[in-house]
Amino acid sequence: MGRSSRVPALRQGVRILRLLARHGGPMPAAAVARELELPRSSIYHLLSELETDGLVVHLPEERRYGLGLGAFELGSAYTRQAPLARLARPLLHDLVDDVGHGAHLAVLHGREVVYLLEERAPGSPSLVTGVGVRLPAHLTASGRAILAGLDAAQVRALFPDASAFADRHGVGPRSLSALRIVLSEVRQLGHATESGEVTPGFASVAVAARDHAGYPIAGIAVTFAEDAVDLRVRPALAGRIVRTASDLSRRLGGGRP
């Protein structure tokens, strides 16, 4: 499909989402077609595509369409991320100054984490955790810190079967039962770790920050070469990250991680 055929469809899809948002409730497809002055066949095709992406939900008993969870995720992600990065930036800067290793801030998006901030230490190598990068949540320390704060039903919904477990280097949990063991350890320790599961030769320690409702809104992690930080020192490093996550939680109106 060429650009000329994709762009009009995208625009019409955006028009549908805006209409459903303005209407304040689910609408019949015929009403959507009438409001937008488009053929019903085109509307049904567009609604089907939007439904596949979770942006629209079909209510068969009512024969209506409404905004889906995907639309909510986009809106709530904006309201979370806009102030979140600004509030976290100076805290990450101080954390990196103290520990001498790079740090980053990530949020959960589906089964992935999205990196919002990266603060590199002087002389530290470039990593894959740049701003905007997405990685499998179950393999990253940041993702594990956030997932450990969700209830069992939420984790099960995100990882319903083996196909949900993306692989990078052949290590890390590959089933829900294995992931539950990892998350249980995170809760016991009070921080999450990963070693070589994102990038061979590098390890990370992370703690989740919580918002005013107690939701684990973001993960703060420090990443370092595996041989640069002795295993006996890592609990102390985790304690410093806990302080940063606690400071961010307080800024967000939440409590201690």
UniProtKB/TrEMBL annotation:
The protein's name in its UniProt record: IclR family transcriptional regulator
PANTHER family registered for this protein in UniProt: HELIX-TURN-HELIX TRANSCRIPTIONAL REGULATOR, ICLR FAMILY, TRANSCRIPTIONAL REGULATOR ICLR
Domain HTH iclR-type residues, every copy: 7-69
InterPro entries: ArsR-like_HTH, GAF-like_dom_sf, HTH_MetabolicPath_Reg, Tscrpt_reg_IclR_C, Tscrpt_reg_IclR_N, WH-like_DNA-bd_sf, WH_DNA-bd_sf
Keyword flag GTP-binding: no
Superkingdom of the source species: Bacteria
Record-level Gene Ontology MF annotations: DNA binding; DNA-binding transcription factor activity
Domain IclR-ED: residue ranges: 70-254
Alphabetical GO biological process terms: negative regulation of DNA-templated transcription
This protein's UniProt keywords: DNA-binding, Transcription, Transcription regulation
Transmembrane regions listed in the UniProt entry: none
